[in-house]
Design a protein that fits this description.
Number of strands: 5
Transmembrane segments: 7-25, 118-141, 153-175, 207-232
Number of domains: 1
Keywords: Membrane, Transmembrane, Transmembrane helix
Strand content: 5-15%
Helix content: 55-70%
Region (Disordered): 255-283
Order of helices and strands: HEEEEHHHHHEHH
Length: 283
């Protein structure tokens, strides 16, 4: 039992650490949705995350994905939305002065610089914070040898962390990805890409979003493993308590040995003998 408990301790710590790193990496990754191309001589890739986006282009500028989300064309770099959204103002894009392109671009900015992405950022930040708390709590649980009542809250927190990540994915897909995908600005670029798909991959969901989804599903699995660990700790504690009580009984100076403890039949014989003695003395 001791070996099984120790192995489960290590597995829970490693799983919680892996999930924490995964959540933080996905939250900061600029690769939730991306497009790329490589014709053997030139290549490019663009990705967009929750707090930043990136562009990487190698070779001839003629081989490119078309118009970018950000104007002017973004150089090879990873840029934060804070810097790129400084010029954004909350206005009705339909009445914006300028050409049709500026109005379409305004719609994209209203998503990435406005409320939809901000809500997803807040939810994902909560998930990242919960992952740190779960990891720290699992370490404390592994170090302390006995089960405590507070560990029940750890199970709830693990399930909550997974639920929050699922919520972040659902909100991002519904209010960010689909809205961008259905916008005129995006659909024009997507149509040009799909019309000439040779050596190209058009805008699509990338690994950071899928990794967040997987991590959200693994947190309930972590809760199950922690529940098994708590059961093992309870069983181990009962065994240790029983052994400790036995040792205390053996160490007591006046504690009768097993062979010296009178049996019920012996006790009745003693009582009958005593009664016979008393009766004879009264005659």
């Amino acid at each position: 039992m001791e070996l099984k408990t120790r192995v489960l301790d290590i597995l829970c710590v490693l799983l919680s650490a892996l999930l924490m790193i995964s959540v933080w990496y996905c939250a900061l990754s600029p690769d939730w949705m991306a497009q790329s191309g490589d014709n053997g001589q030139s290549s490019y890739s663009q990705g967009i995350g929750l707090w930043s986006n990136y562009t990487l282009q190698i070779g001839a500028d003629a081989f490119d994905p078309g118009n970018s989300f950000w104007l002017p064309t973004q150089p090879n770099a990873v840029d934060s939305f804070d810097a790129q959204c400084e010029s954004y103002r909350k206005v009705d894009c339909s009445v914006l002065e300028g050409g049709e392109y500026d109005k379409q671009y305004c719609v994209i900015q209203s998503i990435y610089c406005g409320t939809p992405l901000f809500i997803v950022q807040v939810v994902m930040a909560i998930a990242a914070g919960l992952s740190v708390l779960v990891f720290a709590w699992v370490i404390a649980m592994a170090v302390y040898p006995h089960r405590t009542l507070t560990e029940n809250y750890l199970l709830h927190m693990s399930i909550l962390a997974g639920f929050v990540q699922m919520a972040a994915i659902g909100l991002w897909y519904t209010y960010v990805y689909l809205k961008v995908l259905n916008s005129t600005f995006y659909s024009d670029e997507y149509t040009r890409c799909t019309a000439n798909p040779t050596n190209r991959s058009c805008w699509s969901i990338r690994y950071a979003a899928y990794a967040t989804l997987v991590a959200g599903g693994l947190y309930p699995a972590l809760a199950i493993a922690l529940s098994q660990l708590m059961s093992l700790k309870s069983s181990r504690y009962r065994v240790q308590l029983k052994q400790h009580c036995k040792e205390l009984m053996d160490e007591m100076p006046f504690s009768p040995r097993g062979s010296e403890i009178p049996r019920p039949s012996d006790a009745s014989t003693v009582r009958e003998s005593d009664m016979s003695t008393i009766t004879n003395s009264m005659r």
